[in-house]
Design goal:
7-stranded parallel beta sheet, about 40% helix, binds adenosine-5'-diphosphate, binds magnesium ion
């Protein structure tokens, strides 16, 4: 096992990592950090799934490379949203703490541009920015890119999805020819290849565990139905597949109980599992579920967390989870141990976009199905 020490990071960075509790590099960090620390800086394209530590993969080398004795802006990080930008800036500050005196600013749309202009008047070595606002600031001459040596396009696929392509083009035209460019993304659509070709110079390409999380035994399906029609729709699916056994995920305890009651009152083998039940009630529900005396367990994400049942044919989503990443955890309840399974989401017409986002984010393909007659 390689650890952070082998990657060429400075002793002071290693100390910081120890303090913030990063014990072992993630695969993208393990591969990208040594490349980005090389004396002769190179361009790089790094591909890795969401949540695999891409920020530190570029952030640690960046903090080492930026000169804190030089007050000029040396690094520019573009991010798709305010939240992602703020998170990145926070991590950079944490990485530099106690070893370098760096000033990191975050700028984004939807907030006072005057405040941001004022903040940028202070010596600032690193700016994290959403493309639209950054372009505004460039046009108002509130930011000078002439000393920028490092440009990071973070979450590049998301930025393109949000329509920032032209802004990015224009921003890059304001930076120096001899800058280095690091691009990080969860996916590699053609537009990203185009950006790499157009703006990067023989980039090193690193791709780790693409699609490793995807269980190909799961068929991902969705049904479009009005919220008020969801229970009748679920009934149809239960009717035509009496041998089905599954979990239906709901977002709230109340919803969980109501749906289980509605279906139970209609004579279906359905029960609820959520945090308002006592421990003994929960144990009894789980016992009946395992003994197959019910067809469908209706549960909240939290209550279902510890459930270990191997032969579920279906996972249903009464609503998609707030955190799209939870979709993987939910759907992973079916198709275990080499069996096939179906993950079926009930969505209302306004939520179709979430399916597209899920396809991108979790890298699965969905098939639209109809409510059986
Ligand atoms: P990505 O950009 O790939 O989606 P992030 O860089 O946002 O992922 O990292 C996700 C989370 O993992 C963050 O909370 C980060 O602090 C944490 N993290 C990153 N690298 C490590 C590591 N080597 N050890 C422990 N936690 C880490
Ligand atoms: Mg990221």
């Amino acid at each position: 096992m390689s650890d952070f020490k082998q990657l060429g990071l400075s002793d002071s960075t290693l100390k910081v990592l120890e303090q913030i509790g990063f014990e072992k590099p993630t695969p993208i960090q393990e591969q990208a950090i040594p490349v980005l620390l090389k004396d002769e800086a190179t361009d790089l394209v790094g591909l890795a799934q969401t949540g695999t530590g891409k920020t530190a993969a570029f952030g640690l080398p960046l903090v080492e490379r930026v000169d804190d004795n030089d007050p000029s802006l040396q690094a520019l990080i573009m991010a798709p949203t305010r939240e992602l930008g703020q998170q990145t800036a926070q991590q950079l500050v944490a990485f530099s703490k106690g070893q370098k005196k760096l000033n990191v600013e975050v700028v984004y749309g939807g907030a006072s541009i005057m405040d941001q202009i004022r903040a940028l008047k202070r010596p600032t070595q690193i700016v994290v920015a959403t493309p639209g606002r950054l372009l505004d600031l460039i046009k108002r001459r509130a930011i000078k890119l002439s000393n920028v040596k490092y440009v990071v396009l973070d979450e590049a696929d998301e930025m393109l999805n949000m329509g920032f392509k032209e802004d990015i083009d224009e921003i890059l035209s304001h930076t120096m020819e001899d800058r280095v460019t690091w691009l990080f993304s969860a996916t590699m659509p053609r537009e990203i290849k185009n950006i790499a070709k157009k703006y990067m110079n023989n980039p090193v390409e690193i791709a780790v565990n693409k699609e490793s999380e995807v269980n190909t035994d799961i068929s991902h399906q969705y049904v479009i139905t009005k919220t008020s029609n969801k229970v009748p729709a679920v009934r149809r699916f239960l009717d035509i597949q009496p041998e089905m056994r599954g979990i239906m995920f709901c977002r709230t305890k109340r919803e969980t109980q109501e749906i289980a009651d509605d279906l139970g009152n209609l004579g279906y083998g359905v029960e609820a599992l959520h945090g308002d039940l006592s421990q003994s009630q929960r144990d009894a529900v789980m016992r009946r579920f395992k003994q197959r005396s019910m067809q469908l367990l209706v549960a909240t994400d939290v209550a279902a967390r510890g459930i270990d049942v191997n032969d579920l044919t279906h996972v249903m989503h009464h609503k998609l989870p707030d955190q799209l990443e939870s979709y993987t955890h939910r759907s992973g309840r079916t198709a275990r141990a080499g069996r096939k399974g179906i993950s079926l989401a009930f969505i209302n017409p306004r939520e179709v976009r979430q399916i597209t986002m899920l396809e991108r984010r979790v890298k699965v393909k969905f098939e639209q199905v109809q409510v059986p007659n």
